[in-house]
Amino acid sequence: MSKPPAPVSLQDLRREIDSIDEQVHRLLMQRGDIIDRLIAVKQTQEVGSAFRPAREADMMKRLAERHRGILPLDTVESIWRVIISTFTYVQAPFSMHADLSHGESAMRDSARFHFGFTVPFIAHLGAGAAVEAVAKSKGDLALVSAAASRTAWWTALEGAGAPRIIARLPFIERADHPAALPVFVISRVADEALVTDVEVWSVRVSGWGAEVARALVPLADIIAVPETASDGAALLISVPSSEGLEGITAALRRAGATVRGTALVGSHAKRYTVAPSETARA
Known about the structure:
Elements: H1 10-42, H2 53-66, H3 73-91, E1 96-99, H4 104-115, E2 121-124, H5 127-135, E3 141-145, E4 164-169, E5 172-173, E6 183-187, E7 198-206, H6 210-216, E8 221-226, E9 233-240, H7 246-254, E10 258-268, E11 272-273, H8 276-281
Parallel strand pairs: 1-2, 1-3, 5-11
Antiparallel strand pairs: 3-6, 4-6, 7-9, 7-10, 8-9
């Protein structure tokens, strides 16, 4: 009878791990070589921010879909975000201008989780200041809370040539996400790099009130800032591009509000949500 194979030793397993680590490092350096060629081909420095929201959202979705095993999805997502963001920074250096007025720790967690520590972090106490800094830059990003606001900062995105909302973080949403703060990313990028699953509109209305607000809640994600000197309000409305803004403006009118003006101020990928059971299985 043949003897059973000898059990694998701890030393053998560690050698395997060392070999995998070396392969990963070599592949990262190879990725860097390709980035060098990419810069030469695309002349990235001449088109503003190298951030590509459509491509990044798709990459993160594919990452979550194929992930399996004991390594937590949080760890894998964080590693990939650092890799992607650092190589983006290498292509065309940029800074993050973050509004800390809704909580410093949560915004810093989101910024560092999604962009790592290589990209410079510049703090602002107000969304307007962060947006203004990006408007004066060539390819910087502004990170602003997508949950609420005390000021209608998005009106600065209405003019021709102004930066736009180009992404909403996190790319992969789940109940226990370590950087769960909903954040808009604002910058200038090439038109072909944009993703338009969800349109973001600046809407100005008269006749704003609780009844009007309740009428909109089932239809879209809305941030509202009432005007202090009138019954009006400035709204930031995120609506699927397949539905458009017509249903929202019709609902506003039915509720008794008057639409004074609308402007498209950005777009982003639709939310990709991972259920708790999928996170545990991954």
